[in-house]
Design goal:
The chain is mainly alpha-helical. It contains 20 helices and no strands. The chain is globular, with a radius of gyration of 22 Å.
């Protein structure tokens, strides 16, 4: 229901904006112009909650991973696969979107806000600035990536404390994140008005060119996700786990269906566990650890979407991404993709640090929110597919026997 209301805000904003652009009607222009403050309030509300929400989620996730009981061979293989496979996802998203930009019209976006954008940094400067001399000043300045590094270090240290102390800190962080998630829900309920206030003025100035660009973005994300599944996950499953692509996809069709329809990896956990153990022969130990863990921190589809969105928004606002800065963008996207919060369209909310790293106005996130239903369905499906793939591959490398539910005796037969 919320997605429909948000879409309604986008559609109304487009109607008013396009009507003003095509007819020159003074009333429509006035409505578009006077609605702009509503968009600014919406963006300010997003900025207000992003930093504490990301920090609390990161702290809880990292502190739990630092629990010695969850480390070892399985944990090492899992985290290694997560980290290594996210980089190709981000690069594919950025590369496909770079090609897709050839089909977008040239648009001159109006100024999003009066603040001075941060200067582009080299990779060296970017890495140096990741360590904040004053984490409180970093929080006040909105330097989210520096704050992420500080939070991760404190969380890792918390994970080594005595169990009682560690659990108290993790519980507090989770309680704070739950309260902040409630605030996010309240903000999202105002999203139709806020998106209208952002889209209507921009569309009144830009017209059909903006719609064409958004269509190219959605198509590019879809192509990128297909490439990721076809040339990364399915080959790994075939050559390492000896599972045919068709057999794998048939075995997890229930989880894919739930993910696609609900746009929630958490909602797909129960059926993912069932299909991973019964249809793919993954041990209960591996599945029970990796499926929930993957749902909380491994979202390759979201990483690809974020990489594509950053390139798209940078082009939309005329912000160049030179080679020296591309590595910083990939690193920023990598960090935030591991800690996507469990809220609607969370991949969009957590893009703020990566956008900040290259100087793209956060106001561009409103366009992503308005069209996010279709990309969200696609990337959530790929997220669940990747999480199940990780469980299968780790189960295989951990030398746990697998028994596939199949009509053939040999699952490797083409």
């Amino acid at each position: 229901m919320l997605n429909k209301i948000i879409t309604l805000g986008l559609v109304l904003g487009l109607i008013v904006g396009l009507g003003a652009a095509m007819t020159g009607n003074p009333l429509l222009h006035a409505i578009a112009r006077e609605s702009a403050p509503l968009g600014k309030v919406f963006i300010n509300a997003i900025k207000m909650v992003v930093i504490p929400l990301v920090v609390s989620v990161i702290f809880a996730s990292v502190a739990r991973l630092s629990d010695p009981r969850k480390l070892g061979k399985i944990g090492g293989l899992t985290l290694g696969f997560y980290w290594v496979s996210l980089i190709p996802a981000i690069v594919i998203g950025m590369g496909v979107m770079k090609l897709g930009l050839r089909f977008t019209p040239d648009i001159e976006m109006p100024p999003a806000e009066a603040t001075t954008l941060p200067k582009l940094q080299s990779i060296t400067d970017f890495l140096v600035n990741l360590v904040p001399p004053n984490p409180f000043a970093a929080a006040a300045d909105g330097a989210i990536l520096s704050l992420i590094v500080f939070t991760a270090l404190v969380a890792a240290a918390a994970g080594t404390l005595a169990r009682e102390r560690r659990e108290r800190m993790i519980t507090a962080a989770e309680d704070i994140s739950q309260a902040l998630i409630k605030v996010v829900w309240w903000i999202l309920y105002t999203a139709p008005i806020g998106i209208f206030g952002l889209v209507a003025p921009a569309t009144a100035l830009l017209g059909w060119e903006l719609l064409q660009s958004l269509g190219v973005f959605i198509a590019s994300v879809f192509v990128g996700l297909v490439i990721l599944v076809t040339f990364v996950f399915l080959p790994l499953l075939f050559f390492i786990a000896k599972i045919r692509p068709i057999q794998f996809l048939k075995s997890i069709m229930g989880a894919i269906s739930v993910a696609f329809s609900t746009t929630s990896t958490a909602a797909a956990i129960p059926i993912s566990l069932e299909e991973t153990t019964k249809n793919l022969g993954v041990s209960d130990t591996v599945a029970n650890l990796l499926i929930p863990l993957g749902a909380s921190m491994y979202r390759p589809g979201s990483a690809l979407f974020q990489g594509a969105a950053i390139v798209f928004l940078a082009d939309l606002y005329g912000v160049p991404i030179p080679i020296a800065t591309a590595g910083a963008v990939i690193l920023a996207t990598f960090l935030v993709s591991l800690t996507v919060a469990p809220v609607p369209s969370s991949s969009i909310f957590t893009m703020a640090p990566a956008l900040d790293a290259i100087g793209v106005p956060v106001a561009g996130l409103a366009f992503m929110l308005g069209i996010d239903r279709i990309p969200d369905m696609m990337r959530t499906t790929v997220n669940v597919l990747g999480q199940i793939s990780a469980a299968v591959l780790v189960n295989t490398k951990n030398e746990v026997p697998m028994k596939l539910s199949s009509d053939t005796d040999d699952p490797t037969v083409p």
